Amino acid sequence: MNILIIEDEEQAAQRLESLVRLIIPGVNVLAKLDTVRRAVEWFTRNPPPDLVFMDIQLADGIGFMIFDQCEVASPIIFTTAYDEYALKAFKVNSIDYILKPVDKIELEAAINKFRGLARNSKEEQSKLISSIGEAMKMLTKKFKTRFVVKVGEHLRTIEITDVQYFYSQDKTTFCTTCEGRKLVLDYTLEQLEDMVDPERFYRINRKYLISSDAIADIISYTNSRLKVLLKDSQDNDVIVARERVQDFKSWLDR
Fold this sequence. Notes:
Blueprint: E1 2-6, H1 10-23, E2 28-33, H2 36-45, E3 51-55, E4 57-58, E5 61-62, H3 65-69, E6 76-80, H4 88-92, E7 96-99, H5 104-117, H6 122-130, H7 132-139, E8 146-151, E9 154-159, E10 163-169, E11 172-177, E12 182-185, H8 189-195, E13 201-203, E14 208-211, E15 215-220, E16 226-230, E17 239-240, H9 245-252
């Protein structure tokens, strides 16, 4: 089997190669590349390998940029340090990935999956590769970095890093800053949930979208629910919706 490794961390590339050689005796590593530019040049000048291992974040950009500049006709296993929330697109589109540091058991499972892919029709392989575009959109999405708010007769900008949480009250949406200021926003919570980085903010119920920094305490509540005490909030009834409790815990424990 001929493979290509696209990885900008030398130690990670060496570890990956060593693990692959344990799993696939006699494997031929065609090259180890560390940038988008070098990868594009390689794919342009060489026949496609049997399998590609690709890091998402390379020295000169995101690995998905390769697909915009050349044809990649090989199945791909992505290696990445991205949190799982950002990689849901891979699961949906049946594209495999391994979180760093690479684990031998997970690597072997991914290789076996792509061995199965090799037995699929050309049409099925083509659909899989084309779905990479959807995953690219997911990972390259730009989240809000600031908001424009009206303060009296003036307009001010609030950096997203200064926001502790968003909440709705009487059909109005507010944000509370790290200084405890409460400001009105021209967005609904549903809109904000899609605008902000889910690594930083979590929608705990219909009323609150909070950052982990805003949490003063978490208390066990009735019916397996959780009560959250928020900084600079007089609301003592902030409850995590029951159906969100497990996901909320996972979000905190990342």
